Amino acid sequence: MIGNLPLITVGLITVIGLFTIVSKRNLIKILMGLNIFEAAVNLFLISIGYREGGIAPIYTNAVQGLMVLPTPQALTLTSIVIGVATTAMLLAFVTIIYRNYGTVDTDRIRELRE
Amino acid sequence: MSWELLRLHAPALLIAVPLVASFAMPILGRTKLSRGIIALGAMALTSCIAIFLSYTVYTSGVLLYVFGAESPALSIPPDSGGIPIRIIFTIDALSAFMTLIVAIVGFSVFLYSMSSDQRHTGLEGYYTLFLMMIAGILGMVNTGDLFNFFVFLEISSLAGAGLVAFRIEKGKAVEGALKFAVLSTMGALLLLFAVGIFYWQYDALNIAAIASRMQFSLLDQIALVMLVAALAMKCGSVPLHFWTPDAYSMAPSSVTAMLVVSSQASLYGLFRVIFTLYGIKLDWVTVGWIVIALGMLSMFVGVTMAIPQKDVKRLMAYHAISQTGYMLLGVGVGIAVLGDPASLQSYGMAAIDGGLFHIFNHAMYKGLLFLTAGAIIYVTGTRDMNAMGGLGHRMKYTMIFFMIGALAIAGIPPFNGFASKLVIYESVYRFSPVLAIIAMLVSILTLASFVKVFHSVFMGPELPEYDTGREVPLPMLLGMGLLAGIVIVIGIFPAPFIDHLVAPAAQALVNQAGYISAVAGGG
Questions:
Q1: Ramachandran sector of residue B81 (left: φ over 0; alpha: ψ -120 to 50; beta: rest)
Q2: Does residue A40 sit within a domain?
Q3: Which residue of B has its CA nearest to A111?
């Protein structure tokens, strides 16, 4: 049970993130939901690479013993970097929308709907 | 020596050339001349490498390129326990086929963009993003690594979203880009989740390595749902299509033509996942019917939404959704008979051929149509078709190119749309006559819609507000002419094209064992 705690957390914040994206109307809150979902995916990647009692996977002068898997950590790092770029771009979009429309409410941003 | 090195490292150069040019652009692209030389030069070079690479793959089989290995074909290091640990490009005939599409459309679009976009500022940033998007799409279709696919997918969607928003247009373009970017990010995260699930079970990220260990357990089924949802969203299929008209209509026209190719790279990803990653281990009848259902819905919803549109590019965007349906239908029929060798040989392969052939043809005629729409907007300055009229008097070449594109999309002989639709109708009819008849009806509606566009834009008396309008500049005509030429040539001689380009690609898609052994046997 306690070993599954990271995965239960992943499930929980995935639901919170997706629910926020679907239910909120404020663009900033939608982006926050997106970031929460992203955190869930990152936590999932880290937790699949974890080994009970493992040490950091650095081979130089390593002591004997179990190591955690390095690949998921590399994936997570890449994913975090991509996430930063995406969030920055999306926030820039929201800023421009706010300047032009004067609102960040999705119900009032409907210039493109017919 | 150097020629040999060049040949050996062509897959890496394919990505490196546009990427390096993209980052050189903000520094070196300050003047109009240097910007044009770098952008067009880099794209021409990329297209040459792409065509050379496709030729190599079609003549001598699957090509492996292992990044950072002592020998580019050394896929499994001796001390790794049989798991390919490096990033591997696995370029089979299907990847080569998609690479060819990017090469042709990319070059035409850059040629066109040399004059269509020159009235705007900030062009060095524009070409930076544009070249990055090309690198992303090329990476998506050539990579043999699932995580790498995610990275390239993000590169192409981020660059694509930046380009959609490029001309802010009082916030409207940014609104379209925001929808595109949020949905792309969600799709990419779902894909990453699925990648995590695979790594958890199989300790591998390479598509071939995962495919050879595939158990089709409950977790794999969850991963399949995530992958199909993410990639169906990215390729603009109904019911997750609503970003498509917004993003396509608000992007600059040269970008829209490339966004079509970007969506098709996602479609490639979908087919690659279903055929190569899962193969016949999945429940092929159910998955096949799901893909067919997505296709039929896209076809029908796309065309019915297109008919009442007033914005010329929005109308074409809905038609793009509808045409994506044909590709899903063709390949979906192939999936539905995947485990049944008799049906697969008698009509399943033909259906896959048709679906893939339609991907190629769609990229050509849809690219052409979006470029003509851009030419119309370039001259008139409006997107509203009700405000246009009589443009045929002054824009004769654009009118001819539009007619070629419109007749091709409606499936009228002798244009390429007819060739691929005929293959789809024939094979799907043997699977289920009803589906084929609906597909034909959608084609008729498409024709009706484009006749209306043609009439309201080009026919009628010359309107006084456009009597200073002239034909668009030569580079734009050349870009459109290149695509129009291909539409006609393929339409008149489809048979050699199907035999030599499409059929090997379809074979490569179905031949899962060949894909796995190409990677596993490379060490």
A1: left
A2: yes
A3: B172
